[in-house]
Amino acid sequence: MIDPVEARELLADRLREAEQRLAGTSAERAAVVDASRDSNADDEHDPEGATIAYERGMLDVLAGRLRQTLADLAVAERRLAAGEYQVCERCGGTIADDRLRALPTVRTCRACAGRTR
User: Fold this and answer.
1) How many CB atoms lie within 10 A of CB 30?
2) Are the beta carbons of 104 and 11 closer than 8 angstroms?
3) CB 7 within 8 A of CB 104
4) Residue-wise pLDDT tens digits, 10-60
5) How many CB atoms lie within 10 A of CB 5?
6) How far is CA 90 from CA 36, 106, 115, in A?
């Protein structure tokens, strides 16, 4: 069984990483928006590459994924506090240590992860 202290450290590391990436993504999006305000470029017909709207959209998707990661981490922390961190939500079996180390927010064992609903 994975040690609760190790699990807390894994979750804390992932939390710091996700928060830093979200802050960077938010700053990058703000920079794109600010740069586009001062430009009169026709970004929809720019032959040089991606449009400003596309860049904003991609950054929004990335930020959304990072916010989901933060939510998943909060669930994992609650599961850890409740003593359910290593328990598969589908079958009640044990989630392998190596799986949790690789994916600290996972909530199913390997067998259940491979099954369709």
Assistant:
1) 11
2) yes
3) yes
4) 999 999 999 999 999 999 998 887 877 766 555 556 565 567 778 888 999
5) 8
6) 48, 12, 10
Provide the sign of the torsion angle of the four alpha carbons 89, 71, 66, 24, taken in this order: negative
Burial 8-17 (b: 16+ CB within 10 A, else e): bebbeebbee
SS3 87: strand
> Mind listing the pLDDT tens digit for each residue in 65-104?
999 999 999 999 999 999 999 999 999 999 999 999 999 9
Distance CA 38, CA 63 (A): 24
Task: Tokens for 113, please give them.
Answer: 């992860």
